[in-house]
Design a protein that fits this description.
This protein is of the alpha+beta class and 221 residues long. The chain is built from nine helices and four strands. The chain has two domains: 79 residues, 3-Layer(aba) Sandwich (Glutaredoxin); 116 residues, Glutathione S-transferase Yfyf (Class Pi), Chain A, domain 2 (Up-down Bundle). The radius of gyration is 17 Å and the shape is globular.
Length: 221
């Protein structure tokens, strides 16, 4: 039975992006179902599947929600996909980075909502958001030291999928980052799976006003 991934708008839903990219990059077959975040039936339809939030992975009668839980389930169901590093110490580090992304960086999320259709334009960051950026740079630089490849732990995996929406935010809002972070972002955005997601996001016409408000911005010359 083919897996089914229920997601929200590709332009806005950062949580939906994570397992979708992981599955496409790992060539795990699945059907997608998009339920727009402002659809009047959203709460009822998604609520019937679990927590009432997207994404939700459906495997027969089983429903798995929360992006990180979905990635863990996929890693166990498809071990050959290599979503986590094989070496236990490195795998532990990858899980720690993914968990920190799952639970943290609230100021960055609030100030730089994911909006892949937004023209690239810099936005002033609060001191708290700047601290989030600095911490993410540190994680990426540290993970990349011995990666042996363009991604955090060599090949694209679950940890990269968790940070993919941050790559989108940093790009959209022209966040200044170090050379290692910039190289990592370019590798993620060059993925065929990323381009497919972006194409879907650009094709959408739905607008969420709360994610379109353009706070005071500093325009690049």
């Amino acid at each position: 039975m083919t897996l089914r991934l229920v997601i929200g708008n590709k332009n806005y839903s950062s949580w939906s992006m994570r397992p979708w990219l992981a599955m496409r990059a790992a060539k795990i077959p699945f059907d997608e179902e998009v339920i727009l975040l402002d659809d009047p039936t959203f709460k009822a339809r998604v609520g019937a599947l679990g927590s009432g939030k997207v994404p939700v992975l459906l495997d027969g009668d089983l429903a798995i929600w929360e992006s990180l839980a979905i990635l863990e389930y996929l890693a166990e169901k498809f071990p050959a996909a290599g979503l986590w590093p094989v070496e236990p110490v490195v795998r532990g580090k990858a899980r720690a980075a993914a968990a920190e992304m799952h639970a943290g960086f609230v100021h960055l999320r609030r100030q730089l909502p994911m909006n892949m259709r937004r023209p690239v334009r810099q936005r002033e960051l609060s001191p708290e958001a700047k601290m989030d950026v600095s911490r993410i740079e540190t994680i990426w630089t540290d993970c990349h030291k011995n990666a042996g490849g363009p991604f955090l732990f060599g090949k694209f995996g679950a940890a990269d999928a968790m940070f993919a929406p941050v790559v989108s935010r940093f790009h959209t809002y022209a966040v200044d980052v170090n050379a290692t972070a910039r190289s990592y972002m370019e590798a993620v955005m060059a993925l065929p799976a990323w381009r497919d997601w972006l194409e879907g996001a650009l094709a959408e016409t739905a607008v969420l006003p709360e994610d379109e408000v353009d706070w005071p911005a500093v325009l690049r010359p």
